[in-house]
């Protein structure tokens, strides 16, 4: 985490980042998406993807009962097969963190909480910090904050930087994921700038989307973010994780992301410590495909509990 001296250096730095070749990024992401992963490699990829899922529920209608059911699924995704790995984390609103923490006690699964006026990011900083502190004191191990896209797009990068550093401080030992909401950032150049801004301000992870804005996670956006974490590690010596989130629903999608990680940032990122898939309804497809590989037949969506 850096301190800002007036922001002039930060502005110059962000302006000086090379522009993204949009056509090149889209073409490379599309080419990698055609890679075929089969049999043993596919089985390993599915288990890796399961271990990277941030199993998420972020609905206004969420209840303690729904969160408890989600936690049971997180700990034992397929009750008929104890060999299935557990997911990385369960992601909920801050008022449901205590329910998730109790339900996951002893499982080793962390609770992640969205915070900072999710999903809009529009509230006074003090209100955002109250939200973060409440989630942390209820036991959240990870905080998924949203940046103020309005401030970023208006050019007030110091405000965004200062909010991230303040939230990072309020996190204490909890890990900070910074949601860029890339669907609102308009250009891939902005995605690259916001990625560097968040990393320099202390993000432990950079995350694409809230899941509430379309487009949410895409392969070209994630490619640009993976390049940013790779280049940031080379420059600053710190490895930041990446979390695409929103609209990732199929095993095919998940495996495409894993190929992209391997080919862009490299195998050091192929672990839940550095790569997550934020998703509310991906897990069942991973479980169905896993069972299909093992038994040769599809079990059908009704076989697994709703995620
Ligand atoms: O952070 C995760 C997203 O909110 C989940 O989005 P999704 O419901 O499209 O999977």
Automatic annotation (TrEMBL):
Superkingdom of source: Bacteria
CDD domains named among the record's database cross-references: DeoC
Record key words, sorted: Lyase, Schiff base
Pfam families: DeoC (PF01791)
EC number: 4.1.2.4
SMART domains: DeoC (SM01133)
Stored InterPro entries: Aldolase_TIM, DeoC, DeoC/FbaB/LacD_aldolase
Enzyme class: lyase
Keyword Cytoplasm: no
Catalytic activity: 2-deoxy-D-ribose 5-phosphate = D-glyceraldehyde 3-phosphate + acetaldehyde
Pathway of action: Carbohydrate degradation; 2-deoxy-D-ribose 1-phosphate degradation; D-glyceraldehyde 3-phosphate and acetaldehyde from 2-deoxy-alpha-D-ribose 1-phosphate: step 2/2
Family affiliation: Belongs to the DeoC/FbaB aldolase family. DeoC type 2 subfamily.
NCBIfam families named in the record: deoC (TIGR00126)
Name under which the protein is recorded: Deoxyribose-phosphate aldolase
UniProt source species: Actinomadura meridiana
Gene name of the encoded protein: deoC
């Amino acid at each position: 985490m850096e301190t800002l001296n007036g922001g002039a250096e930060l502005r110059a730095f962000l302006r000086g980042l090379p522009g993204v070749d949009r056509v090149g990024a889209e073409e490379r992401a599309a080419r990698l998406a055609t890679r075929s992963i089969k049999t043993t490699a596919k089985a390993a990829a599915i288990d890796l993807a399961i271990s990277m899922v941030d199993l998420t529920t972020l609905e206004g209608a969420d209840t303690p009962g729904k969160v408890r059911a989600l936690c049971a699924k997180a700990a034992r995704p397929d009750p008929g097969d104890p060999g299935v790995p557990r997911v990385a984390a369960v992601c909920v609103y801050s008022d449901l963190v205590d329910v998730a923490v109790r339900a996951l006690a002893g499982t080793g699964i962390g609770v992640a909480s969205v915070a900072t006026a999710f999903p809009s990011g529009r509230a006074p900083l003090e209100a955002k910090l109250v939200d973060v502190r409440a989630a942390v004191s209820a036991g959240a191990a990870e905080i998924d904050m949203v940046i103020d896209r309005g401030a970023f797009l208006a050019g007030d990068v110091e405000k965004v930087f200062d909010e991230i550093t303040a939230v990072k401080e309020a996190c204490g030992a909890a890990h900070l994921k910074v949601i860029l909401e890339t669907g609102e950032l308009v250009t891939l150049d902005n995605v690259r700038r916001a990625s560097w801004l968040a990393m320099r301000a202390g993000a432990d992870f950079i995350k694409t989307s809230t899941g509430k804005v379309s487009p949410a996670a895409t392969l070209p956006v994630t490619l640009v973010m993976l390049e940013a974490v790779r280049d940031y590690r080379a420059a600053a010596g710190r490895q930041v994780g990446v979390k695409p989130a929103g609209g990732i629903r199929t095993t095919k999608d998940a495996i495409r992301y894993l190929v992209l990680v391997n080919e862009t940032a490299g195998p050091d990122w192929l672990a839940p410590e550095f790569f997550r898939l934020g998703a509310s309804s991906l897990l069942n497809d991973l479980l169905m495909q896993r069972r299909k590989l093992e038994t040769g037949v599809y079990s059908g969506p009704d076989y697994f509990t709703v995620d």
